[in-house]
């Protein structure tokens, strides 16, 4: 299994905060949000981070300060209009790197307390696992990605 942390967006909904800093690198309790995610990924899982050219230097600097190897992948994108979107970034990374392994995909700007070892242990290699958080207020939920179920499928 490999882990891909998606960090190639431009965070336009959070402007002006994210005009100069990627969402995943925004500080929370003294360190970048993405660092908390990296700490939760079991050591035996290889981690990749995909970002865009605009924030590449920031991620390279962050990468140097880690206690763990991270593979950085830079998408050929500089402006929001060129962005692949989350699923497009995933597809681009998989195709460019010839990935056929099981894959754990996480948005780099999410802070969570999920036990990743337990979550991964539920994966049986045949069925997709999805972790979501229930936001009770529908108006609040509309500000985030919304998962819709149909016949027990997302």
Notes on the protein architecture:
With 154 residues, this protein is an alpha/beta fold. It has a single domain, classed as Spore Coat Polysaccharide Biosynthesis Protein SpsA, Chain A (Alpha-Beta Complex), CATH 3.90.550. It is built from five helices and six strands. A four-stranded parallel β-sheet has the order 5-4-1-6, sandwiched between helices. Helix 2 links the parallel strand 4 and strand 5. It is globular, with a radius of gyration of 16 Å. The mean pLDDT is 83.
CATH architecture term: Alpha-Beta Complex
The count of DSSP E runs of length 2 or more, i.e. the number of strands, is 6
Work out the helix count. Answer: 5
Q: Roughly what is the average pLDDT, rounded to an integer?
A: 83
Task: Set down the secondary structure blueprint.
Elements: E1 2-7, E2 27-28, E3 31-32, H1 33-40, E4 46-52, H2 56-64, E5 71-75, H3 85-97, E6 103-107, H4 116-121, H5 138-141
Parallel strand pairs: 1-4, 1-6, 4-5
Antiparallel strand pairs: 2-3
Summary tags:
4-stranded parallel sheet, globular, 5 helices, single chain, two-stranded antiparallel ribbon, Spore Coat Polysaccharide Biosynthesis Protein SpsA, Chain A, 154 residues, alpha/beta
In short:
This is Nucleotidyl transferase domain-containing protein. The protein contains 5 helices and 6 strands.
């Amino acid at each position: 299994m490999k882990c891909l942390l998606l960090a190639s967006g431009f965070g336009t909904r959070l402007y002006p905060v994210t005009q100069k800093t990627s969402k995943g690198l925004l500080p929370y309790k003294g360190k970048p949000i993405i660092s908390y995610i990296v700490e939760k990924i079991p050591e035996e899982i290889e981690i990749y981070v995909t970002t865009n050219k605009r924030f590449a230097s920031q991620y390279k600097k962050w990468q140097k300060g880690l206690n763990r190897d991270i593979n950085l992948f830079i998408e050929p994108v500089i402006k929001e209009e060129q962005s692949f979107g989350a699923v497009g970034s995933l597809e681009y990374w998989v195709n460019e790197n010839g990935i056929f392994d099981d894959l754990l995909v996480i948005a780099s700007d999410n802070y969570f307390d999920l036990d990743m070892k337990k979550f991964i242990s539920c994966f049986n290699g045949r069925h997709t696992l999805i972790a979501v958080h229930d936001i009770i207020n529908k108006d609040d939920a509309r500000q985030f990605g919304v998962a819709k179920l149909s016949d027990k499928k997302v």
